[in-house]
Amino acid sequence: GWGNSGSGLTWVKERLYRSPGSFLWLAWPSTRTLHGQQLMTGALVVIPARYGSTRFPGKPLKLLAGVPMILRTLHNAQRARKAAEAIVATDDERIVDVVRAAGGLAVMTSPDCSNGTKRVLEAVQRFGSDPYDVIVNVQGDEPLINPDHVDLAVSVLTETNHGEAKSADVGTIAVRIAAEEDLTNPNTVKCVVNARNEAMYFSRAPIPSMRSGKIDLKHGRARYLRHLGIYAFRREFLTEAIPEMAPSDLEMTEMLEQLTWLYFGAKIKVGLVNQAAHGVDTQEDLEKLEEHLSFRKT
To answer: What angle do CA 156, 86, 240 make, to 5 degrees?
Structure first.
């Protein structure tokens, strides 16, 4: 098997990040000792954050209600009950400086990492992952990520059915699609699961496809799911199996790395949530999120 996750979490230390008109609590978890060896009591959350975004350069450091987005993502990741530690993996010293000034942990990684998973892997190799059975990849551009979603990704990874040695190699989450525009949008990744909520396929196309060509999200028999980009990995799968996998033709066609994992026989378990977090890809997204937060405060 790929290992088992720990459980339980106790916060023992807090610090306050301040910027004009705002504040943010950052916290650190406790450890436990077994036979003299220090072990973490939960998962390691790694947040990849690239400074040079094509559509929105400097995105991780953009302020959302007075706080850099990367710190909001870090804060919410730390709130997950199954997170023992959360670190930021970045390619830019400016992001490292902001995170460390707030009392958080940041690891420098190569600017040549082609995707978030490769950046997470490099960060884990630099930071050290031996105390952790589960590594979670949380995208840095989701400052309002729900900590419960992180917990769910870990739970579906580690839970086992009767007689199973392990349940999955990867845990992730999805939400039901309610709008036709999301179903037909190639930037919205869809997934199909089996009776055990294991992923069968991911696609940018609307799947499953309706033979009639007519889409009926309300009354159709099919359940359309939008994949959300949180991955909980068994440590050995991330550090040993994935580096040995050459990109599959399916991945290169759809530009979805998880298709390579499926191609090589990995089991990806999918947890279902009721609502997706608000991601930020553009300045317009950030402005909408600012309005959303202002509305919630009124």
So the answer is: 60
Is 234:43 a contact under the CB 8 Å cutoff? no
- In the chain, the amino acid numbered 8 is G
Paired sense of beta strands 83-90 and 199-203, if any: unpaired
- In a 13 Å sphere around the CA of 243, the CA atoms on its Cβ side amount to 11
Joined together, the tokens standing for residue 162 give: 């009767």
- Residues 129-154 have pLDDT tens digits of 778 999 999 999 899 999 999 999 99
Contact between 247 and 294 (Cβ < 8 Å): no
| Beta carbons of 117 and 135 less than 8 angstroms apart | no
Run of H or E including 64: strand 63-64
Question: In angstroms, what CA-CA distances link 277 with 64, 162, 184?
Answer: 15, 33, 20
Say how far apart CA 292 and CA 287 lie, in whole Å: 9
The C-alpha atoms of residue 206 and residue 222 are separated, in whole angstroms, by 11
The CA-to-CA distance between both ends of the chain, in Å, stands at 50
Residue 113: strand, helix, or coil: coil
Token pair of 233 as six digits? 């990995």
CB atoms within 10 A of CB 194: 9
Instruction: Categorise residue 66: left if φ over 0, alpha if ψ from -120 to 50, beta otherwise.
Output: left
pLDDT tens string 52-72: 877 788 999 999 989 999 999
